[in-house]
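Hi team,

Below is the intake form for Transport permease protein from Planosporangium mesophilum. Please confirm the fields before the structure is written into the shared record.

FORM ID: S-0412
PROTEIN: Transport permease protein
ORGANISM: Planosporangium mesophilum
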Amino acid sequence: MNRHFLGDTAVLLGRSLRHITRSPDTIITTAIMPIAFMLLFVYVFGGAIETGSDSYVNYLLPGILLITIASGISYTAYRLFLDMQGGIFERFQSMPIARSAVLWAHVLTSLVANLTSLVVVVGVALLMGFRTGAGVLGWLAVVGILVLFTLALTWIAVIPGLTAKSVDGASAFSYPLIFLPFISSAFVPTESMPGPVRAFAEHQPVTSIVNAIRDLFTRQPVGTDIWTALAWCAGILVVAYMFANISYRRRIS
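The structure came back. Fields below:
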């Protein structure tokens, strides 16, 4: 069964990746908005924001990476919605294919596409002066957090992709996720925020994830932030995975 599932997932993943290679503009579009935010904040607002960091782009980049992922997962919901409306799922049901392989192919496609967009964004950040003292283990830890965060948000994206009534509804859910980093430590220290906003910012998942990545980049002790970040990502992933599979079973039943 596992071999059957893995083989089916690999075949369907290849199908989805071919669609992306034929339309690379989706990856470019995903990267454009985060890069625009990075340019805007570094070159327009950066001089007026006090972060205690030698370089604002170093402080800013972790939040920009999360915005890149939140922007990219909307395409997962979009592609899933098109497959549902196009009757592809019904066609797959008539074939000897593991049912869960269909969803996993979309999720892994999202992971590949988002990692590609993240590489583009990091490349632009390097051109803007981003520097890090992180070693191999530090970078592996950053990549691990970003992969887990991408999987968590992608399984959230699967739910509207399966249940939305329109293309706009399938992708619009990502807008609040894109702007969540703005109410966190991604752009300014939370200490500068008024009381209620600061309380929300310090206890939402983006802040702990951003702080953990920032500490890894600067080779600072990560403390409890990394465990809080991993707990948030794992918790969101498990809950989203459960609801996505419930929605999938209802849709194909």
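SUMMARY LINE: Residues 61 and 125 are 7 Å apart (CA to CA).

Thanks, M.
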